[in-house]
């Protein structure tokens, strides 16, 4: 199913381009992001943590690949995958910052560079841009909603009718009527 992106298409496109540009900026120390993405020797020498690798890989999939494809194809399934992957990448970026800031030794000497923070901003922008796209109603939705209930309404109406009949039958069935008090009152009046 195709999505109506509207002005969000430009935001997603800018975020994708920004993320790809950030790959060539310093990610950790002087090491560019593409070396972390490719698990290069420079990334290993900067004591890159697993959370930073996960962030770059998921960011590349969610923002670099899937979001770029969404801006071109406008496919809802691809947008959903891009949003989910980007959300996990955003969480892993927080863990990467925490792990880098709390590290001692070699990892403590290398700080995140502007490329890392530009990637985080791009991922955050993508995650926040997808949310309104998923929750807003489109022009296609009312047409789908009009067609869907007709099939469901008949089943629901039958179930409600059966439930009402069963309830009415219980009230009028002489075997199910609780008249013990009335019978006791009649017996009491006869004995007096």
TrEMBL record:
Residues 166-192 are annotated as: Disordered. The chain crosses the membrane at residues 12-34, 54-72, 79-99, 115-135. Residues 183-192 have a biased composition (Basic residues). Keywords: Membrane, Transmembrane, Transmembrane helix. This is DUF4345 domain-containing protein. It comes from Corynebacterium pseudogenitalium.
